[in-house]
Amino acid sequence: MRNQFDEQLELLNVELIRMGALCEEAIGFATQALLEGSAASAEKAVAVDAEIDQKEREIEQLCIKLLLKQQPVARDLRVISAALKMISDMERIGDQAADISEITRYIGKNNSRSKVHIADMAKATGKMVTDSIDSFVKKDLTLAHDVMRYDDVVDDLFAAVRRELIGLIAEDGRNGELCIDLLMVAKYFERIGDHAVNIAEWVEFSLTGKHMSNEGV
Question: Are the C-beta atoms of residues 165 and 179 closer than 8 Å to each other?
């Protein structure tokens, strides 16, 4: 019975890796759509978001099967509970990548210099998503903590984008609509970083039984 349970837990790890890879893909296509004004990349990001939604349902079913049939206790129960929380955050990452792609349809190939820092945000948040999933699979608490700290990098980049966009509007009020769109894109990337932090916090819970939301309770 334990061998079967371990096999299903390993399958859960594999499926989470696949879902994380899809999130990276969605972020990559959304970034490409932004930087190159590529409608094809925008459409691919939306298509990958649909795959992420499907993967969430599959993993959810696997977790429910593990809970009902195997009746896990202690750490195993924490692992499965954390996975259920993590896929919710990954699903939101997919949604936000799709939202970014939708906005890029209005931005087109405009070469705003603020796109440079937004591209840096995309790279940073992609790294956070990858590392947060890796920390779960590898049971690496140090890597999970690194993800939490790295969120400061994304926050600093968002602040830089915001300053630059304010400057662009000050230079020419006609930049207003573009700047609002770019600010929304930057905000979505910031939220993706927040979701990666959430995933890392659930990794910590799965390993230690402690979660940030319970501090001070």
Answer: yes
What is the distance between the alpha carbons of residues 121 and 127, in angstroms, rounded to a whole number? 10
Q: Give CA 191 to chain center in angstroms.
A: 8
Residues 140, 204 contacting (CB under 8 angstroms): no
Q: Residue 93: CB partners within 8 Å, gap ≥ 6? A: 23, 26, 27, 52, 129, 192, 195, 196
DSSP reduced 3-state for 139: coil
Contact present, 186 and 123 (Cβ < 8 Å): no
Instruction: Look up residue 203 and give its DSSP letter.
Output: H
Q: How far is CA 104 from CA 63, 101, 173, 189, in A?
A: 36, 5, 20, 13
Contact status, residue 198 vs residue 212, Cβ threshold 8 Å = no
DSSP annotation of 211: -
Chain segment 99-119, per-residue pLDDT in tens: 999 998 888 666 666 677 888
Summarised one tens digit per residue, pLDDT across range 182-191 is: 999 999 999 9
